[in-house]
What does this fold into?
Amino acid sequence: MTTDISITIKPQDEKNQALINAEIFKALDKKGISFKKEEVTSVFVKKSIDARHGQIKILLRYKIYIGEEPNGDGETLPVWKKAGGKHTVIIVGSGPAGLYAAFRLLEDGIKPVIIERGSCTDERKGDITVLESEGKLNAQSNFCFGEGGAGTFSDGKLYTRSNKRGDIGKIYRIFVEFGASEKILTDAHPHIGTDKLPGIISGMRKKIIELGGEFYFYTLCTNLIVERSLSGVEMTAKGVNLKNLRTNEEFSLTGDAVILATGHSAVDIYKMIAKISPSSLEAKTFAVGVRVEHPRALIDSIQFHGKPMPQAAEYRLTTQVEERGVYSFCMCPGGYVVPCATAENQIVINGMSSSGRNSQWSDAAIVVERRPEDIPTEYQEQAQKAGCPALAGLYWRTALEEETFRQGKGQFAPAQKLTDFLSHKDSTTLPETSYKPGVVPSRLDKWLPSEISRRLEQGFRDFDKNMHGFISEDALLIASETRTSTPVRITRDKESLECLGIKNLYPAGEGSGYSGGIGSSAMDGEKVAAQISGKLKVEN
It folds into this structure.
């Protein structure tokens, strides 16, 4: 027989296998299960830490086999086939949705052709180094754009609550196959790390090419090739118009389907869809705010109650202020703050951690919920004039990023001490920061939209009640965090997953508005690819 059990141990006992075995046997006894110790095989499933109530506990979950061998159900990799010449699917974007869509297509021997506006990971690494050290932005190759998508160089967090969307275990196993630590299979909050993920993504690309897939780097999707019905009402995507950004060569590719997996920062793609089929876009709730950075030692002390632990502490905070959510997002323990603009006149902030999570800082986005009805009238009117009301939030987000740039200096970001933000005064000095290129003092409390700043102010006060010491002279606010998700959704049919206004076009991942983060985006890409594969089999 098999059963699942969970046990709780102290941190110092984590490597004491004899004690762990004794706790497993106790748990089986409590469940009323009869067994002989020599017939019990335990398979470790998940680890998490509970630091509530001033007592640190480690929670371990096991699958127990009694009188039988572990069967390994669901633990094997999929079988990928060499792509045949019969079917081709074009995938715009090489983030997790695009890459995992490619692998899913290869399970059925369908050829994926991946279009990426940015560079491969090796070149992208150099572009990011220049951005951080010199403040020079490559608009096509940066923290957001390039092979692997936004998560490749900005953390590699895998945790998702969207397990019903697909097999998250399969996603993790494929990452492990290409070099990720096996810890991601069992950690409660799995994390690959920015130092590891580029090599993993590069290995994925090489495997896809080995199996017959193709990659086009520094290639921009400029338009869809759309076939209209005789009535002119129905549209079907047949391919894409492209431009090589290095040679300026323009060319086209056609295929059996087009997957749009372009991420939350590809503003031009939303505008492209708006011109072709404005009704295919709808406004959605998103969030904006700032990134708060503390000394890691302070956050560790608060969360672990002053007790030493081998790993950096995490936190998750949420409150309601004036009927809108205020919450932490993308918390980076032992991490860094990084510049994530995609245009010369923007400043956009994000966070990341290496696999060791061992920097001297810990940071998180603290953001305020923004609903479509919250967008100021001028941006709603701008969207109306453009013929697509759904773009209003996108126009407002862009305006905030440009205002942040004006308040900064080049890619030096505007910043204010948390205590000064709450006291509404200038910061005469700023704490040391992980952010490169650097920060400049700025009155965030004055120029951030008042509906954002006042909610942030109350939110910080609420958070300090749960994490006393969160409000600290050493805490730094850096603006602006605007890319937590997209303000726009590309609508799609619940069954076919096709774009509602353009048949044969399959929005996927964060840019579609149907997922958020690496794990859920990868599952979404798989789901879309499986739908296409099933359709092509039926047609044959």
In short: Residues 518-539 form the longest helix (22 residues). The chain has three domains: 2-66, 88-282+488-539, 285-481. The chain has a mean pLDDT of 92. The radius of gyration is 24 Å.
